[in-house]
Amino acid sequence: MVDFARSDRELELEARTQAFIRNVIIPAERDPRQTTHGPAPEFVAELRSKARAAGLLAPQVAERWGGYGLTHRETATVLRASGYSLLGPVAMNCMAPDEGNMHLLDVVATEAQKIQYLAPLAAGEIRSAFLMTEPDGGAGSDPDMLATTARAVGSDWIIDGRKWLITGAIGARFGIVMARTPEGATMFLTEMDAPGITIERVLDTLDQAIPGGHSVIRLEGLRVPASQVLGTVGEGFRYAQVRLAPARLTHCMRWWGAARRAHDIATEYACQRKAFGKPLIEHEGVGFMLARNQVELLQTQLLIDYTAWTLDQGARGTSESSMAKMSSAETLFQIVDRCVQVLGGLGITADTQVARIFNEIRAFRIYDGPTEVHLWSLARRLQRQQAKGKA
């Protein structure tokens, strides 16, 4: 039976996170050190020092790395609370891509690699990148199109290729590179300032909340020692699955918090603003939109919690996380879109956080797999199940 009971530490961390976001992070949202390519490095460091002081830095990681060793279910509660401000996950060091990379390293990396990369990453001292997506007909929604190659030269590997939409590359200390080897896709760890890595440009995108933005990167003769292979050569796609399901879900958690913030702003406005002789919320056209938001926030929360519970049972959760990501991205976007509508002209200005959240959450419908790819994948799984049932 699915158990949605919440632990004492989960409730305590939720309350602390909510207070931290409300009292410390929300007042910092107007800080001018936010750029079109994410918060400036000194601003990130300042926010993380405050989260560290509050005991809320990377709460999701194991106790060994400074966190609380939360279950996926507990993580859902805390990350939802962190997402109430777009700066919350940045401050608490539970933002993509670092959060997903922490999980991957903890599961796959050698002890030496954990000490070198995971320890400072979890401590919020450095940032990281995940180099998978490619332009020029390379890997995107279809990972089998991976075009970046790695060839063995003595005890090293030489990597060549191009990557794009690489989140957080500017300012990252290290990256995890996916490349094709004769044995199959393989993951490599590399310093981001290594010879052979060139950041061609930072893309201008709708979303602007992640430090370092999203870059186009050229890998040309990048030399990586064998000791920097992450896991086993040829097992890259399998390790990608280790990272994928939890990382998809934490996106849903954080964006749920942002959508809830937009809903709360719109609700307060609708209760105060009057038109045609009564508060906006008393007009069915407005009140019904907010009521639908409330229903869909709860539905999305339950789907996230169910998927998190599934992962906690030791299941891969591939289908469940795909459904959660697809449904959350579509539903949360619609919730925020209604909030813009309720606010009217105010909703398209920077006077509230709603317009910013709208831009940010629109990208969620594409990142970690577009909605259509998730639906296609789920449909293929249904077809295989049907065929198997007839066999």
Describe the structure in your own words:
This protein has a four-stranded mixed beta sheet with strand order 3-6-7-10, covered by helices on one side. Strands 4-5-9-8 form a four-stranded antiparallel beta sheet, with no helix packed on it. A two-stranded antiparallel sheet has the order 1-2. The protein has 391 residues and is an alpha+beta fold. The two termini are 30 Å apart. The protein is built from eleven helices and twelve strands. The chain folds into three domains: 8-95, Acyl-CoA dehydrogenase/oxidase, N-terminal domain (Butyryl-Coa Dehydrogenase, subunit A, domain 1); 128-234, Butyryl-CoA Dehydrogenase, subunit A, domain 2 (Beta Barrel), CATH 2.40.110.10; 237-390, Butyryl-CoA Dehydrogenase, subunit A, domain 3.
Summarize the helices and strands and which ones pair or pack.
Layout (H helix, E strand, L loop, with lengths): L7 H18 L8 E2 L2 E2 L1 H13 L18 H11 L5 H4 L6 H11 L2 H12 L5 E4 L17 E5 L2 E12 L6 E8 L2 E8 L5 E7 L10 E12 L3 E2 L5 H37 L1 E2 L2 E2 L4 H29 L5 H26 L10 H11 L6 H20 L1
Parallel strand pairs: 3-6
Antiparallel strand pairs: 1-2, 4-5, 5-9, 6-7, 7-10, 8-9, 11-12
